[in-house]
Specification:
The protein is 34% helix and 21% strand. The protein is α/β, with parallel strands linked by helices. The chain has a single domain, classed as Alpha/beta knot (3-Layer(aba) Sandwich), CATH 3.40.1280. It has a 7-stranded parallel sheet, sandwiched between helices. α2 packs parallel to α7. The longest helix is centred in the last third of the chain and has 16 residues, at 159-174. It is globular and about 50 Å long. The two termini are 28 Å apart.
């Protein structure tokens, strides 16, 4: 086997990405501190054609050289908006018709394996702070809380890893009924 060259990967341009079909998914980052985590989520959202990212609270916004370090330019391709307050962001997403889901370990959460993604619905997933997770106020406003099953000794995953797992799961299901 031979590694593919950049030319052989046939990647689309930033302009083509902006015109391309997207999965009906919005990723919300609430109070994410690490610029590397933010950049990583941008890159994941680019890879799996996510509609947009909503940055909230203390989450930094582009342009930022440290976000760029891990985003590698995805901050230019993926649409993003900023809201100072998570409750304002959730309210707007609900008004736009999104099913809002916190990625959090709570009583009554649904395992990611069991979460049914329905054709025709639009979803927003909230990823929270590296230490505190998704705040209780946001959890209270969500339609669902989704938990990533884990079987080791640790009780949590890095926020960018959680984002990658969740975005892949949604993409894998949604691409079956989205024209990509």
């Amino acid at each position: 086997m031979k590694k593919k060259t950049m030319m052989e990967l046939h990647r689309i341009s930033c302009e083509e990405f902006k015109r391309a079909s997207k999965i009906p998914l919005v990723v919300v980052l609430d109070d994410v501190r690490s610029l590397n985590n933010i950049g990583s989520v941008f890159r994941t959202c680019d890879a799996f054609v996510v509609e947009r990212i909503v940055l909230c609270g203390i989450t930094a916004t582009p342009p930022n050289p440290d976000i760029h370090k891990t985003a590698l330019g995805a901050e230019f391709s993926v649409e993003w908006v900023y809201h100072k307050d998570i409750t304002e962001a959730i309210g707007q997403l609900r008004n736009e018709g999104y099913v809002v889901c916190a990625i959090e370990q709570v009583n009554g959460s649904v395992s990611l394996d069991d979460f049914a993604i329905e054709q025709g619905k639009r979803y927003a997933v909230i990823l929270g702070n590296e230490v505190k997770g998704v705040c209780q106020q946001a959890v209270d406003m969500c339609d669902y809380c989704i938990e990533i099953p884990q079987y080791g000794t640790k009780h949590s995953l890095n926020v960018s890893i959680s984002g990658g797992i969740v975005v892949w799961h949604f993409f894998n299901k949604m691409r079956l009924f989205t024209r990509l």
